[in-house]
Automatic annotation (TrEMBL):
This is Acylglycerol kinase, mitochondrial. It comes from Peucedramus taeniatus. SMART domains: DAGKc. It catalyses: 1-(5Z,8Z,11Z,14Z-eicosatetraenoyl)-sn-glycerol + ATP = 1-(5Z,8Z,11Z,14Z-eicosatetraenoyl)-sn-glycero-3-phosphate + ADP + H(+); 1,2-di-(9Z-octadecenoyl)-sn-glycerol + ATP = 1,2-di-(9Z-octadecenoyl)-sn-glycero-3-phosphate + ADP + H(+); 1-hexadecanoyl-sn-glycerol + ATP = 1-hexadecanoyl-sn-glycero-3-phosphate + ADP + H(+); a 2-acylglycerol + ATP = a 2-acyl-sn-glycerol 3-phosphate + ADP + H(+). Residues 58-199 form the DAGKc domain. GO terms for molecular function: acylglycerol kinase activity; ATP binding; ATP-dependent diacylglycerol kinase activity; ceramide kinase activity. Pfam families: AGK_C, DAGK_cat.
Length: 420
């Protein structure tokens, strides 16, 4: 023992390196063991759903999964197979996994999709945006938009997961919780933005649209990887070397909020008896003709000329309120008078929360808006963190258009906040 201690003391550099390596290895193995325990517990919970008895005449529920293997720098496929796929198969669902091979493929696949009971999106913000765009472009979108949608966060940016699931620092736990939420069946209605250019087909978004200097600087952060943890500040700092202050000029026309209609019941009433239907038809036939309603007054559009460093149009999905009486989207017009230091500091905040609206900005609540850009305007829009060419667009709010599965704890928090 004395010889061992003497050797360790004599070779203290090697001993310190070996101890650090051994400690790191032990911590890594312990993390893997904890992840396996989380997977096992989630599979056992899913097995309980799969063991439930059902009538022999009832078919299995069909679940169509749209998986983007390229998400999370190519790790999404492995993450799905390890953490989500076993839970879905043990739950008793008839699972069909559709893997996308290139950008935009999900939109085309949705046009050919047959009837399904569940749609599950496995990927990031880009995959969500593609799937809902393909879904709402269908000729029969009125029926298909009623299909509940599940979201398994596997991408680098998963904005929607903050609304649907509790925060978690453990990736395995976050994925398994999201997959189990699909089995538990609790859903929340989410708003959708319909964004239509002059010639292009409409694009749909659940988060929002961004146009401005913060967005342009944010997409270049990865190019400054050699700055390490300072790459975000470096990207925004170097972007200030352009013409300053950076202005984005446009014309905005918008309509105010609309009153929220009562929610339709989920279950339709049974068909009335034959004699009741005959009586109703005879009554409508012999009754006096209905008077046509008066002409609707022209819509009250408001117009605004703007010059801003960044413009954002966002849904209220991040601040869900199930008891809200009005439907609207938030338009944030940020002041152009920003110092370079404030721009760098605020740019780091916007990387964490892209749709934040800082103090001093002009805020507008609207149900519909038209954004007119001057001729020759360069740059790009960020629609749900996906890049599109900047052009004049019409943005229309589709309130409570889609229903997404959510963690029951999140829904309970929303209901409690509504009561308070």
């Amino acid at each position: 023992m004395a010889k061992v201690l003497a050797a360790l003391r004599h070779h203290w550099k090697k001993s310190t390196f070996g101890a650090c390596l051994l400690g790191w290895g032990g911590h890594w193995l312990y993390g893997k063991h904890c992840d396996n325990l989380l997977r096992r517990a989630a599979c056992q919970e899913a097995q309980a759903f799969g063991n439930q008895l059902m009538p022999a005449t009832m078919p299995l529920k069909k679940a169509t999964v749209f998986l983007n293997p390229a998400a999370c720098k190519g790790k999404a496929g492995n993450l799905f197979e390890k953490n989500a796929a076993p839970i879905l198969h043990l739950s008793g669902l008839d699972v069909t996994v559709v893997k996308t091979d290139y950008e935009g493929q999900a939109k085309k696949l949705l046009e050919l999709m047959e009837n399904t009971d569940l749609i599950i999106i496995a990927g990031g913000d880009g995959t969500v945006q593609e799937v809902i765009t393909g879904l709402l472009r269908r000729a029969d979108e009125a029926a298909f938009s009623k299909i509940p949608i599940g979201f398994i966060p596997l991408g680098k940016t998963c904005t929607l997961s903050h609304t649907l699931y509790p925060e978690s620092t453990n990736q395995v736990q976050h994925i398994t919780n999201a997959t189990l939420a699909i089995l538990k069946g609790e859903t929340v209605p989410l708003d959708v933005l319909q964004i239509k250019g002059e010639k292009e087909q409409p694009v749909f978004a659940v988060s929002g649209l961004r146009w401005g200097s913060y967005r342009d600087a944010g997409v270049k952060v990865s190019k400054y990887w050699y700055f390490g943890p300072l790459k975000t500040k470096a990207a925004h700092f170097f972007s200030t070397f352009k013409e300053w202050p950076q202005k984005h000029q446009a014309a905005l026309m918008y309509l105010g909020p609309t009153e929220r209609p009562p929610e339709e019941p989920e279950e339709k009433s049974s068909r009335p008896p034959l004699y009741v239907r005959l009586y109703r038809r005879l009554r409508s036939y012999w009754s006096s003709p209905k008077e046509f309603p008066p002409d609707v007054a022209p819509e009250g559009w408001e117009e605004l000329k703007l010059s801003t460093i960044e413009l954002s149009i966002a849904t209220r999905n991040r601040q869900l309120d199930l008891t809200r009486t009005e439907d609207f989207m938030d338009i944030c017009i940020e002041a152009e008078s920003v110092s370079k230091g404030e721009f760098v500091h605020r740019g780091s905040q916007k990387m964490r929360d892209p749709l934040m609206c800082p103090e001093g900005s002009q805020r507008i609540q609207a149900s519909r808006c038209i954004l007119q850009l001057p001729e020759g305007t360069e740059g790009s829009f960020g629609i749900d963190n996906e890049e599109y060419e900047a052009m004049p667009v019409e943005v229309k709010l589709l309130p409570r258009k889609l229903r997404f599965f959510c963690d029951p704890r999140m829904r309970e928090q929303l209901l409690q906040a509504a009561v308070q």
